[in-house]
Structure formats: structure tokens, C-alpha cells
Amino acid sequence: MAAPMSSPHAQGSNRTRTIMLQVLGATAPGIALMTWFFGWGTLINILLASTCAIGFEAAILRLRRRPIGFYLNDGSALVTAWLLALALPPYAPWWLVLVAIGFAITFGKHLYGGLGQNPFNPAMLGYAMVLVSFPMEMTSWPVWRGIEQLQPAFAPTLGLMEGLQRVFMPGSLPADGWATATALDLLKNNSALTMAELQQAQPAFGSMAGRAWEWVALAYLAGGLYLLYKRIYSWHAPVGMLGALAVMSLLFWNGSGSGSNGSPLFHLLGGATILGAFFIATDPVTSATSNRGRLVFGIGIGVLVYVIRVWGNYPDAVAFAVLLMNLCAPTIDYYTTPRTYGHRKAKRGLGKGAE
């Protein structure tokens, strides 16, 4: 005879650590392609960020007199480290990774009481802080594999030893020839060339979006679809974000002239859009709680990403869009309360106080 189960009759191992490990595993396709296109920098970022995150997590848990082993075992610090490492430019200076991770773990997580109580996504909070504080280092993206064949002025992709030297002794290598602007940066600052002319003049543009980045985005999409298949999260936030971004970019496309803001495909596969949709916007702690709320939450992120990209000062904008919507999540929950079992209609907003 089977043992009785108490509500909510959940089966399977969906503990925090299991979910965190599946999220880390889903990033593997994107990590593999980033390593192929940009060299060892992404893996160096991940190892450095993971080490720093575990160190900060253990130190703060000790100060808070919490069981270190128990909380380290849930894997949340590693997820924060990996997502932040993937958002940072490969070969970022070691001190930049240290500052970003320290801020994310300390002020983005433990300042509010730890996992489950933080209102902001820790990885995006750490990323936004270093982006505002160190814009030069945060816009130094390495050249992709094969660019030297199109523009001999650029150096080939850095090897492992050169990459370590770039991370830990950045002043010991030439400052020119290894980094270039992204397609989002180039489109943001373009005012004279048509899209066709821009694609011919700048090898950073690929057939759909940024060269190399479009394939990295598709790899993250594969990982995100795997998490959807495993029911780690629902489809509402990713679909809402991508759908809103596609609609906004279609409405304000402006064609292929010099005033073009980029096609919907360019924005969907450019920058951190797919990474943000499937790995950032789906954070269960800092997003809305109901399915309707998650859909609204995702739509808000998509609209803000486009607004900041086109009319703001930051070409990618995913981090700022997520953080702004984190602020809105309690209000979204307030107005999107689902119907309680046994009641015909949910009481939402100001109607909650009425009897």
C-alpha cells in the first residue's frame, strides 16, 4: 500500500539544489559556443566568479551565524556566479569579477535575509553596479574567432595563457587589437549608414544579429527550452518578454535605412536577450508569482529592453529592465492574484479590502 501524501501532492525531486544544478546544466550549450567563439575568457570568468561567490557566501553566513555547509549546498551562490560570469565580458579583469560578485552576494542577496527574501536579482544587481562604475572595462568585448581573416588589424582569439595574463595582468598586454564593439553598440551609434552598408563595413554583424552572438543566443534558447520541458519554470515570463520585444522592434523598426533601429530578429538574437528571457526573467524569487503576473512581468521587461536600447544610453539593457521590473513585482502580484479555490472570482487590487 502506498504511503499517504499530504498536500500539495507534489512528487519528484524538485529541491532547490536539484533545480539549481539543472539550471547550471542548461547553460552548457551557450558556454560551449562562447568558449569556441571567444576563447577561454568565459570559462575563466566562471571559475573566478564561482570561487569568489563561494568565498563571499561562506564569509557572510559565518558572520550571520548560519550553517555554512547547509546553505552552500543549495547551489544558489553558484547560479548567481555563473549567470553573472556569462553576462560579463570574457577576460574581464579579476578585480571586476570580484567586485561584481561581492556586490551581488552581499547587497543583492544577504542584505535582505538570504535566498528567497531578496527583491532584486543578485546577478543583475552586480552586473548593473559594475556597468555604471566601470564602463570602459564593461564594454571591452573580445573579438570572435576568425575576425583576423576579415580585418587583419585584429589579433586572433586569445589562447589560455594569454587569456590568464589578460585577466590577472591586464596592463602587460597591448590594449589594441583584441577587443571590438558589439553589433548593438555599432547600431546604437550609427547615424549615416544604411543597414546593408553597416553590415558590409562592420564584420560584427552576422546574417541575423551580431556575428557569433546569434549562435550563442540559439544555444541559450536550447537550454531554456530544456528547462521548460523539465518544468523548472512556466512559459509565461520568457514568452511575454520575447513577444513584447518583438512587437516593439516591429513597430519602431524604421526599415533598413540609416535611421533603422534594427529588425525584430536582430533584437531577439542580439546581446543577452535569450539569456535574460530564459535564465534571468524566470527567477522565481524576484519575479511575479502567478502565471498572469509572470506574463505581465515578462512583457514589462521586453518593453523596457527595447526602450533603453533605442532611446537610452545602454545598448543591451537587459539588466536594467529586469531590475526595474523587480521593483514592480509586488504591485503586479497585488493586481494579478489568482482565484482562490472555492471562490468564483479573485479579489484583486483595491477590491481585496472589500467584504
TrEMBL record:
User: What superkingdom does the record give?
Assistant: Bacteria
* EC number annotated for this UniProt entry: 7.-.-.-
The FMN phosphoryl threonine modification is found at T182
Q: What is its main location?
A: membrane
GO terms (BP aspect): electron transport chain; transmembrane transport
Which Pfam families has this protein been placed in? NQR2_RnfD_RnfE
**Localization of this protein:** Cell inner membrane
Q: Does the keyword Metal-binding apply?
A: no
Any one cellular-component term (Gene Ontology): plasma membrane
Q: How does it sit in the membrane?
A: Multi-pass membrane protein
- Provide the function of this protein: Part of a membrane-bound complex that couples electron transfer with translocation of ions across the membrane.
Task: State the name under which the record lists this protein.
Answer: Ion-translocating oxidoreductase complex subunit D
